[in-house]
Amino acid sequence: MDLRYGINPHQAVRVVNDSGVLPLTVRSGCPSYINLLDAVNGWQLVREAAAATGEMTAASFKHVSPAGAATGGPVDRAARRTWGVDGAAGRLTSAYVRARDADPKSSFGDMIAVSEPVDIELADLLSRVIADGVVAPGFEPGTMEVLAAKKRGTFLVLEADPNFQPPELERRDVFGLLLEQQRDTAPITADLLASCELSATMVTDALLGLVTMRYTQSNSVALVKGGMTLGIGAGQQNRVDCVRLAAAKANTWWLRRHPHIDELPVVDGMTRQDRLNWQIRVADADMTHAQLAEFARLFPTSTPALGNTERAEWIDQLDELTLVSDGFLPFRDNIDHAHRIGVRHVVEPGGSSRSSEVETACIEHGITLVRTGLRLFHH
Asked: Is residue 63 flagged as an active site residue?
Protein backbone atom coordinates (compact mmCIF):
# COMPACT_ATOMS: atom_id res chain seq x y z
CA MET A 1 0.00 0.00 0.00
CA ASP A 2 1.43 3.37 -1.03
CA LEU A 3 1.15 6.38 1.31
CA ARG A 4 1.48 10.07 0.40
CA TYR A 5 3.67 11.00 3.36
CA GLY A 6 4.17 10.43 7.07
CA ILE A 7 2.63 12.30 10.00
CA ASN A 8 4.11 15.46 8.47
CA PRO A 9 4.75 16.03 4.74
CA HIS A 10 8.54 16.12 5.24
CA GLN A 11 8.56 12.58 6.68
CA ALA A 12 8.97 9.61 4.35
CA VAL A 13 6.74 6.62 5.08
CA ARG A 14 6.02 3.04 4.08
CA VAL A 15 3.71 0.27 5.24
CA VAL A 16 5.44 -2.86 6.54
CA ASN A 17 3.33 -6.02 6.52
CA ASP A 18 5.00 -9.40 6.89
CA SER A 19 1.85 -11.50 6.47
CA GLY A 20 0.82 -10.11 3.09
CA VAL A 21 -2.79 -9.84 4.33
CA LEU A 22 -4.11 -6.30 4.74
CA PRO A 23 -7.19 -5.20 6.71
CA LEU A 24 -7.94 -2.44 4.18
CA THR A 25 -7.88 -2.09 0.40
CA VAL A 26 -7.49 1.28 -1.31
CA ARG A 27 -10.32 1.66 -3.82
CA SER A 28 -9.60 5.28 -4.72
CA GLY A 29 -7.15 8.00 -3.68
CA CYS A 30 -3.89 7.69 -1.76
CA PRO A 31 -3.81 7.80 2.07
CA SER A 32 -1.42 9.63 4.33
CA TYR A 33 -0.08 8.15 7.57
CA ILE A 34 -2.77 9.94 9.63
CA ASN A 35 -5.51 8.96 7.16
CA LEU A 36 -4.56 5.33 7.69
CA LEU A 37 -4.49 5.62 11.49
CA ASP A 38 -7.91 7.31 11.47
CA ALA A 39 -9.32 4.69 9.10
CA VAL A 40 -8.03 1.73 11.11
CA ASN A 41 -9.27 3.15 14.42
CA GLY A 42 -12.56 4.30 12.91
CA TRP A 43 -13.28 0.93 11.32
CA GLN A 44 -12.58 -0.93 14.56
CA LEU A 45 -14.87 1.43 16.47
CA VAL A 46 -17.88 1.09 14.17
CA ARG A 47 -17.45 -2.66 13.74
CA GLU A 48 -17.32 -3.26 17.51
CA ALA A 49 -20.08 -0.74 18.29
CA ALA A 50 -22.40 -2.32 15.72
CA ALA A 51 -21.74 -5.76 17.20
CA ALA A 52 -22.29 -4.51 20.75
CA THR A 53 -25.48 -2.52 20.10
CA GLY A 54 -26.96 -4.43 17.18
CA GLU A 55 -27.30 -1.12 15.29
CA MET A 56 -25.69 0.38 12.19
CA THR A 57 -22.95 2.69 13.43
CA ALA A 58 -20.89 5.56 12.04
CA ALA A 59 -17.97 7.59 13.32
CA SER A 60 -16.29 10.83 12.32
CA PHE A 61 -12.54 10.70 13.03
CA LYS A 62 -9.95 13.49 13.28
CA HIS A 63 -6.36 13.06 14.44
CA VAL A 64 -6.83 9.53 15.77
CA SER A 65 -9.84 10.29 17.97
CA PRO A 66 -13.54 10.36 17.11
CA ALA A 67 -15.20 13.77 16.92
CA GLY A 68 -18.51 11.91 17.03
CA ALA A 69 -20.01 8.43 16.90
CA ALA A 70 -23.63 7.37 16.59
CA THR A 71 -26.00 4.57 15.79
CA GLY A 72 -28.72 4.96 13.19
CA GLY A 73 -31.77 6.78 14.51
CA PRO A 74 -33.96 9.90 14.32
CA VAL A 75 -32.41 13.00 12.75
CA ASP A 76 -33.76 16.12 14.40
CA ARG A 77 -34.84 19.31 12.64
CA ALA A 78 -31.57 21.17 13.22
CA ALA A 79 -29.47 18.34 11.77
CA ARG A 80 -31.84 17.91 8.82
CA ARG A 81 -31.52 21.61 7.98
CA THR A 82 -27.74 21.54 8.34
CA TRP A 83 -26.98 18.42 6.32
CA GLY A 84 -29.76 18.55 3.73
CA VAL A 85 -31.44 15.25 4.61
CA ASP A 86 -35.08 14.54 5.35
CA GLY A 87 -36.80 12.64 8.11
CA ALA A 88 -36.92 9.51 5.96
CA ALA A 89 -33.13 9.16 5.78
CA GLY A 90 -31.94 5.54 5.92
CA ARG A 91 -30.35 4.11 9.05
CA LEU A 92 -26.79 4.28 7.74
CA THR A 93 -27.14 7.85 6.49
CA SER A 94 -28.75 8.87 9.77
CA ALA A 95 -25.91 7.26 11.73
CA TYR A 96 -23.34 9.39 9.92
CA VAL A 97 -25.41 12.60 10.12
CA ARG A 98 -25.79 12.09 13.87
CA ALA A 99 -22.06 11.36 14.28
CA ARG A 100 -20.97 14.33 12.14
CA ASP A 101 -23.41 16.74 13.78
CA ALA A 102 -22.07 16.05 17.27
CA ASP A 103 -19.03 18.30 16.77
CA PRO A 104 -19.13 19.64 13.19
CA LYS A 105 -16.32 22.12 13.79
CA SER A 106 -13.95 19.26 14.62
CA SER A 107 -15.41 16.97 11.92
CA PHE A 108 -14.49 19.35 9.09
CA GLY A 109 -12.21 17.26 6.84
CA ASP A 110 -12.87 14.03 8.72
CA MET A 111 -12.25 10.37 8.01
CA ILE A 112 -15.65 8.68 7.90
CA ALA A 113 -16.18 5.13 9.14
CA VAL A 114 -19.40 3.16 8.73
CA SER A 115 -20.22 -0.36 9.82
CA GLU A 116 -22.18 -1.35 6.69
CA PRO A 117 -21.57 -1.08 2.92
CA VAL A 118 -22.06 2.45 1.61
CA ASP A 119 -25.38 2.83 -0.23
CA ILE A 120 -26.28 5.44 -2.85
CA GLU A 121 -28.08 7.67 -0.32
CA LEU A 122 -25.01 7.91 1.91
CA ALA A 123 -22.69 8.31 -1.10
CA ASP A 124 -24.77 11.29 -2.23
CA LEU A 125 -24.46 12.90 1.20
CA LEU A 126 -20.71 12.24 1.33
CA SER A 127 -20.30 13.91 -2.05
CA ARG A 128 -21.61 17.12 -0.45
CA VAL A 129 -19.56 17.30 2.77
CA ILE A 130 -15.96 18.34 3.37
CA ALA A 131 -14.19 15.09 4.27
CA ASP A 132 -10.90 13.33 3.55
CA GLY A 133 -12.22 9.83 3.01
CA VAL A 134 -14.42 6.94 4.00
CA VAL A 135 -13.80 3.40 5.21
CA ALA A 136 -16.55 0.79 4.93
CA PRO A 137 -16.89 -2.99 4.51
CA GLY A 138 -18.17 -2.55 0.96
CA PHE A 139 -19.75 -0.23 -1.61
CA GLU A 140 -23.08 -0.83 -3.30
CA PRO A 141 -23.41 -0.48 -7.10
CA GLY A 142 -23.12 3.10 -8.31
CA THR A 143 -21.46 4.44 -5.17
CA MET A 144 -17.83 4.16 -6.27
CA GLU A 145 -18.45 6.42 -9.26
CA VAL A 146 -19.88 9.09 -6.94
CA LEU A 147 -17.11 8.83 -4.35
CA ALA A 148 -14.17 8.47 -6.75
CA ALA A 149 -15.16 11.74 -8.45
CA LYS A 150 -15.02 13.72 -5.18
CA LYS A 151 -12.13 16.15 -4.66
CA ARG A 152 -11.02 15.69 -8.27
CA GLY A 153 -10.37 12.03 -7.64
CA THR A 154 -8.33 12.47 -4.44
CA PHE A 155 -11.11 11.52 -2.00
CA LEU A 156 -9.88 8.45 -0.17
CA VAL A 157 -12.05 5.34 -0.42
CA LEU A 158 -10.97 2.36 1.68
CA GLU A 159 -12.67 -1.02 1.79
CA ALA A 160 -12.34 -2.89 5.09
CA ASP A 161 -12.19 -6.65 5.21
CA PRO A 162 -14.78 -7.64 7.85
CA ASN A 163 -13.18 -11.10 8.12
CA PHE A 164 -9.67 -9.82 8.86
CA GLN A 165 -8.25 -11.13 12.13
CA PRO A 166 -5.45 -8.98 13.57
CA PRO A 167 -2.42 -10.54 15.29
CA GLU A 168 -2.72 -11.24 19.00
CA LEU A 169 0.29 -9.03 19.72
CA GLU A 170 0.64 -5.35 18.82
CA ARG A 171 4.05 -3.78 18.26
CA ARG A 172 5.26 -0.19 18.24
CA ASP A 173 8.81 0.99 17.53
CA VAL A 174 9.50 4.22 19.47
CA PHE A 175 12.91 5.87 19.72
CA GLY A 176 14.77 2.60 19.36
CA LEU A 177 12.46 0.67 21.67
CA LEU A 178 10.25 -2.06 20.27
CA LEU A 179 7.18 -2.24 22.50
CA GLU A 180 5.01 -5.33 22.35
CA GLN A 181 1.71 -5.91 24.12
CA GLN A 182 -1.34 -8.10 23.91
CA ARG A 183 -4.09 -6.61 21.77
CA ASP A 184 -7.06 -5.34 23.81
CA THR A 185 -9.78 -7.86 23.05
CA ALA A 186 -11.75 -7.64 26.31
CA PRO A 187 -15.40 -8.05 25.26
CA ILE A 188 -17.68 -5.02 25.54
CA THR A 189 -21.15 -6.42 26.15
CA ALA A 190 -24.17 -5.74 28.33
CA ASP A 191 -22.63 -8.10 30.92
CA LEU A 192 -20.36 -5.20 31.97
CA LEU A 193 -23.47 -3.28 33.04
CA ALA A 194 -25.06 -6.05 35.10
CA SER A 195 -24.54 -4.28 38.44
CA CYS A 196 -27.56 -2.04 37.73
CA GLU A 197 -30.96 -2.51 36.16
CA LEU A 198 -30.90 -0.28 33.07
CA SER A 199 -33.32 0.54 30.27
CA ALA A 200 -32.60 -0.71 26.74
CA THR A 201 -31.81 2.87 25.66
CA MET A 202 -29.36 3.30 28.52
CA VAL A 203 -27.64 0.01 27.67
CA THR A 204 -27.19 1.09 24.03
CA ASP A 205 -25.79 4.47 25.10
CA ALA A 206 -23.41 2.85 27.58
CA LEU A 207 -22.14 0.29 25.06
CA LEU A 208 -21.67 2.94 22.37
CA GLY A 209 -19.77 5.08 24.87
CA LEU A 210 -17.55 2.22 26.02
CA VAL A 211 -16.55 1.22 22.49
CA THR A 212 -15.97 4.87 21.60
CA MET A 213 -13.65 5.22 24.59
CA ARG A 214 -11.64 2.20 23.46
CA TYR A 215 -10.63 4.13 20.32
CA THR A 216 -10.28 7.65 21.80
CA GLN A 217 -6.94 9.06 22.94
CA SER A 218 -6.79 8.92 26.75
CA ASN A 219 -7.70 10.40 29.14
CA SER A 220 -11.19 10.53 27.69
CA VAL A 221 -14.87 10.92 28.55
CA ALA A 222 -17.96 10.72 26.34
CA LEU A 223 -21.43 12.13 26.93
CA VAL A 224 -24.04 10.02 25.15
CA LYS A 225 -27.78 10.43 24.59
CA GLY A 226 -30.14 8.60 22.27
CA GLY A 227 -27.38 6.64 20.53
CA MET A 228 -25.24 9.73 19.86
CA THR A 229 -22.07 11.07 21.45
CA LEU A 230 -22.94 14.71 22.12
CA GLY A 231 -19.53 15.55 23.49
CA ILE A 232 -16.16 13.77 23.64
CA GLY A 233 -13.38 15.08 25.87
CA ALA A 234 -10.22 13.42 24.54
CA GLY A 235 -6.52 13.41 25.33
CA GLN A 236 -6.57 15.44 28.53
CA GLN A 237 -4.02 15.01 31.31
CA ASN A 238 -6.70 15.04 34.03
CA ARG A 239 -10.18 13.59 33.99
CA VAL A 240 -12.12 16.59 35.23
CA ASP A 241 -10.91 18.53 32.18
CA CYS A 242 -12.22 15.64 30.05
CA VAL A 243 -15.64 16.07 31.70
CA ARG A 244 -15.61 19.85 31.28
CA LEU A 245 -14.54 19.62 27.63
CA ALA A 246 -17.18 17.01 26.84
CA ALA A 247 -19.77 19.13 28.65
CA ALA A 248 -18.81 22.25 26.69
CA LYS A 249 -19.24 20.35 23.42
CA ALA A 250 -22.59 18.92 24.51
CA ASN A 251 -23.71 22.41 25.52
CA THR A 252 -22.77 23.72 22.08
CA TRP A 253 -24.66 20.88 20.38
CA TRP A 254 -27.77 21.64 22.42
CA LEU A 255 -27.55 25.42 22.04
CA ARG A 256 -27.44 24.98 18.25
CA ARG A 257 -31.01 23.66 18.66
CA HIS A 258 -32.20 26.94 20.22
CA PRO A 259 -34.54 28.68 17.74
CA HIS A 260 -32.44 31.87 17.76
CA ILE A 261 -29.37 29.92 16.62
CA ASP A 262 -31.01 27.22 14.52
CA GLU A 263 -32.93 29.85 12.52
CA LEU A 264 -30.01 32.21 11.95
CA PRO A 265 -30.80 33.96 8.64
CA VAL A 266 -29.50 32.37 5.45
CA VAL A 267 -26.85 34.48 3.72
CA ASP A 268 -26.50 34.19 -0.07
CA GLY A 269 -23.25 32.49 -1.04
CA MET A 270 -22.36 31.41 2.50
CA THR A 271 -21.14 27.82 2.71
CA ARG A 272 -22.63 25.28 5.07
CA GLN A 273 -19.46 25.20 7.18
CA ASP A 274 -19.29 28.99 7.46
CA ARG A 275 -22.91 29.07 8.59
CA LEU A 276 -22.18 26.30 11.10
CA ASN A 277 -19.17 28.20 12.39
CA TRP A 278 -21.33 31.30 13.00
CA GLN A 279 -23.95 29.21 14.83
CA ILE A 280 -21.22 27.69 17.00
CA ARG A 281 -19.79 31.14 17.78
CA VAL A 282 -23.21 32.34 18.92
CA ALA A 283 -23.65 29.17 20.98
CA ASP A 284 -20.23 29.56 22.59
CA ALA A 285 -20.77 33.32 23.24
CA ASP A 286 -17.08 34.00 22.72
CA MET A 287 -16.62 36.18 19.63
CA THR A 288 -13.68 38.50 19.08
CA HIS A 289 -14.27 42.20 18.31
CA ALA A 290 -13.62 41.49 14.63
CA GLN A 291 -16.10 38.61 14.63
CA LEU A 292 -18.75 40.75 16.33
CA ALA A 293 -18.38 43.38 13.63
CA GLU A 294 -18.56 40.75 10.88
CA PHE A 295 -21.62 39.18 12.50
CA ALA A 296 -23.40 42.54 12.53
CA ARG A 297 -22.65 42.98 8.83
CA LEU A 298 -23.81 39.47 7.86
CA PHE A 299 -26.79 39.19 10.21
CA PRO A 300 -28.06 42.75 10.82
CA THR A 301 -31.41 41.55 12.23
CA SER A 302 -29.90 39.08 14.74
CA THR A 303 -28.13 39.43 18.07
CA PRO A 304 -24.75 37.72 18.52
CA ALA A 305 -25.58 36.01 21.81
CA LEU A 306 -28.41 34.73 23.96
CA GLY A 307 -29.16 36.49 27.22
CA ASN A 308 -27.65 34.85 30.27
CA THR A 309 -31.01 33.81 31.70
CA GLU A 310 -32.34 32.51 28.39
CA ARG A 311 -29.10 30.62 27.79
CA ALA A 312 -29.13 29.03 31.25
CA GLU A 313 -32.80 28.05 30.97
CA TRP A 314 -32.18 26.36 27.62
CA ILE A 315 -29.13 24.45 28.87
CA ASP A 316 -31.14 23.24 31.87
CA GLN A 317 -33.47 21.40 29.48
CA LEU A 318 -30.68 19.02 28.34
CA ASP A 319 -31.14 15.91 30.45
CA GLU A 320 -30.76 12.14 30.67
CA LEU A 321 -27.16 12.02 29.45
CA THR A 322 -24.86 9.09 30.09
CA LEU A 323 -21.25 9.79 30.97
CA VAL A 324 -18.76 7.06 30.03
CA SER A 325 -15.15 7.27 31.20
CA ASP A 326 -12.18 5.24 29.96
CA GLY A 327 -10.60 5.27 33.44
CA PHE A 328 -11.79 5.56 37.02
CA LEU A 329 -13.18 8.88 38.26
CA PRO A 330 -10.67 9.93 40.94
CA PHE A 331 -12.65 12.75 42.64
CA ARG A 332 -16.25 13.76 43.15
CA ASP A 333 -15.78 17.03 41.20
CA ASN A 334 -16.17 14.92 38.03
CA ILE A 335 -19.68 14.04 39.20
CA ASP A 336 -20.50 17.60 40.27
CA HIS A 337 -19.55 18.93 36.82
CA ALA A 338 -21.43 16.10 35.11
CA HIS A 339 -24.60 16.83 37.07
CA ARG A 340 -24.60 20.43 35.81
CA ILE A 341 -24.90 19.25 32.17
CA GLY A 342 -27.77 16.83 32.81
CA VAL A 343 -25.90 13.55 33.34
CA ARG A 344 -28.17 10.93 34.96
CA HIS A 345 -26.00 7.83 34.43
CA VAL A 346 -22.25 7.33 34.90
CA VAL A 347 -20.32 4.35 33.58
CA GLU A 348 -16.72 3.99 34.79
CA PRO A 349 -14.29 1.21 35.75
CA GLY A 350 -14.20 2.03 39.47
CA GLY A 351 -11.20 1.33 41.67
CA SER A 352 -10.19 4.84 42.78
CA SER A 353 -9.02 5.30 46.36
CA ARG A 354 -11.87 7.81 46.60
CA SER A 355 -14.50 5.67 44.92
CA SER A 356 -16.72 6.04 47.99
CA GLU A 357 -16.74 9.83 47.52
CA VAL A 358 -17.70 9.41 43.87
CA GLU A 359 -20.52 7.07 44.86
CA THR A 360 -21.74 9.52 47.51
CA ALA A 361 -21.80 12.34 44.95
CA CYS A 362 -23.86 10.19 42.58
CA ILE A 363 -26.36 9.42 45.33
CA GLU A 364 -26.65 13.13 46.22
CA HIS A 365 -27.33 14.06 42.58
CA GLY A 366 -29.64 11.12 41.82
CA ILE A 367 -27.18 9.66 39.30
CA THR A 368 -27.05 5.94 38.51
CA LEU A 369 -23.47 4.69 38.91
CA VAL A 370 -22.32 1.64 36.93
CA ARG A 371 -18.86 0.21 37.55
CA THR A 372 -17.55 -2.09 34.84
CA GLY A 373 -14.14 -3.05 36.23
CA LEU A 374 -12.73 -2.50 32.71
CA ARG A 375 -10.23 0.26 31.92
CA LEU A 376 -10.07 1.32 28.26
CA PHE A 377 -6.97 3.49 27.86
CA HIS A 378 -5.88 4.11 24.28
CA HIS A 379 -2.59 5.68 23.17
From this structure: yes
